[in-house]
C-alpha cells in the first residue's frame, strides 16, 4: 500500500526539492566533515570501485573502484535504495509462511476493486513460491548489492545522463543519507539506510505515485536502471566460471551464448566481412577525396552507399559506432549488445525520461539490431504526403525502389511459419523449421476470438533459425540489413568504411555548398581520437532522426524546422500471465525464442480517428534486461514474484502512429561545435496521441483476455491487475473503463520507442505549415550538394516499422544523385538489379 504522500511532499517542495537538498547537504558536511566516511549499517554493499567502470564490465576490479561523480556516502545510499527495490528476503523454512502471507496481502492490494477473494486465490496460485525450488530460494535471497548493481548503475548514469541530471540525483542521495534528510522525507530523524525496510519501501512507493513529476521521474529512473541491471548484466559468479547472470536459472532463461554450435556457425558467417574489413583505412592513412561521403550506415546511409558504389562512384561511409561481425554477436549477452550496438547503450530517453528510445549505433544501424519487420509504406500515408507536402511527383519512382529493396533483402513471410521449434539451432538451419512462439500464438488466438484478422509479419531474412535474438545481432547471417549491402559494396573496391568515426560538421565553401566533413576517428581499443578531414563532391547525412539534426546544426544550417516534428511511434504494453498448464502441457510462452515479431493484428478499427492514425497490436521478444525495465514495481516481494512468471507471460504492444508536433524536437548544438553532448530530446504525447494510445491499451487488454491470460495488467505504475476467471464479463467491462481512465501519465505509464522519424522532414514547401528543410530530391534547402537520406526525412510517422520505407526512399534518391553526378546506369561489378 503506497504511503500517504501529502504529509511530506509540501516539506520537500518547501526546501526547493533539489536546490534545497544541495543546500542542506552543504550545511551538514560543514558541521560533520567525517560524514562521508561513515560506515553503512544498512544493506550489504560490495567494496566500492576506485577507478571508472565500463558500463557493462563483467568484473569489478580487484582493487575496488569508484564512480567519479558520486562520493562514497552517496554511492552507499544509492545501494540502499536499490536494495529496497531488490532486497534479500529471508527464505528460511520458518519465514516461508510469512512471505506467502505478505505476498497474498500485496496481491490483494494490487488487484482491481472488482476482484473477489477467489480471484486473489487464483492470482496467488499462479505465483511461484521461494519454497518451490532451491534456485527460486536463491533468487528471493539475492539483493541488488550481491551483484554490484549500485556501482554499475552509477557508471551507466555517468556515461549516459547529462551532468545536470546527475547533480540533482547526487543531491537527493546526499540528503537521504542524513538524519535531517530522513526527517524531510518522512522517515523520522534517521538516515534512509537506517530506516526499517517497511519505511524505505513506503517512501519509494510514495515517489512512484507522487503528484510531482520530478519524483516519479526519480523513482522510474532508479527502478528501470537498477532492475534491468539486476536481471540483465552478466557476472562472473556462475557455475564453472561461466560469465552469466545468477538470476537466469530462476527465470529459466538460456542465453544464445549457451548454444555450443553458435561459435562455429558465427565464425563461418563472419568471414563474409573480410572485404569490408579490407575496405577500412588504417587510422593513420592519408585523407582521400571521394565522389560522395555518407554519414551513417543504417537503413538510409547503408542503402545509399550501396547504390552509389554499384553505380561506379567512390564512396566513404563514416559510422560513429563499431563494425561488428557474427563472431562478435555470438559472444554478446543481451546487455553487452546494448552496450556495443545501441545509441547511449539503450538508455537514450526523452527529456523527462518517460520514454525509453532504442536506436542502433553500429555499422548497419538499426537494420543490424532490429526485429526484421519489413512493411511497405501504407498507401494512405503516401497520399497524405502527396497532398500536404507536395510529394506526389517527387515519389514517382518510389514504388520501383521499394520493389528493388524488397527483392534484394528477400522480404517475405517464408520464415514466419509456425512449426515445432528445434532447440538445436544447427539442426534447425539444416531443416529450415521455423516457429512463431507461443506469445505470438496467443495474440493470434485473442484476435481470432474477437473476430480480428491477423497478418504474418514480412521479414528481411534468408535462412532464419528462430533463435529469438534479432536485437542482439544475427549470428547466423540470416538478417539482410545494410551490413550485408555494405559487404557487397566493399567487394566492388569503390567503398571505404570508417567505423568509430564521429562527424563534427560538414565543411562548406563560401557559397554554402558542402565540400566534405570534419570528423574524429577512434581505434577499436578506445584510444585518443584523431581528426579526420575528407572531401567529396556531395555529402549525404544519414545519421538518423536523433543525430542528423545535430550534424546539420553543427554544420551551420538553421532552417526553423530542423530537429522539429520528431515522431517516435510511442509504444505501451499490456502484460498477461497464463496458468502453469495449458491444454495439459506446461505453459511456455518463449518470449526469448522463435520469430522475434511474427504476427500483428490488422483490421479496420485500427484507424481510430478516420485519418489513418491508430495503434497496431504486436508482440515483441523479451529478454531479462527489458523484463526488469518493464515490469511495474508495486512492492519488492510482488515484483520478484511477478518476474518469475516470465516463462508463462506474454506482452502485447501497441505501436502508435503519432501526430506531428513542432514542439517535439531534437535540440540543435552550436555551429562548428566539436563537442558531442548527450542528446537533448523534447517529446510529449499530443492530446490526440494520448487518446490513440489509451484505445490501444484497451484493445490489447481485450486481446489478452480473449487469449485466456489469467492475470492481466497494463504496464503502468498506477494500474491495478485484473484476474480472468472466464465468467466475469461485467467485471471485465468495468476494468476496461478503469484502464481508459488511467490515461497516459509520464513516468507512470511505461513507454518505449524503437522508431525515430521526421526530424528533418522532406517537403516541396520551404515555408508554411508543411515546410521542410529537405527538398524532394533529398538536398538541403540551405546547402547545395548536402543531402539527407534517412528516417528523418519522412514527412510524418508511418504507423508501421519504417525500415523498408527509409531504404526505398534512399534507394530512389541515391539513384537520382548518381545520375546528377554523371555516374553510368550500371558500372562494372555493380550489384545486379540494384
Automatic annotation (TrEMBL):
It catalyses: a long-chain primary fatty alcohol + O2 = a long-chain fatty aldehyde + H2O2. Residues 291-324 form the FAD-dependent oxidoreductase 2 FAD-binding domain. Its EC number is 1.1.3.20. Its main location: membrane. Keywords: FAD, Flavoprotein, Membrane, Oxidoreductase, Transmembrane, Transmembrane helix. It holds the Pfam family GMC_oxred_C. Residues 662-809 form the Glucose-methanol-choline oxidoreductase C-terminal domain. GO terms for molecular function: flavin adenine dinucleotide binding; long-chain-alcohol oxidase activity. Belongs to the GMC oxidoreductase family. This is long-chain-alcohol oxidase. It comes from Phaeomonas parva. The lineage of its organism: Eukaryota, Sar, Stramenopiles, Ochrophyta, Pinguiophyceae.
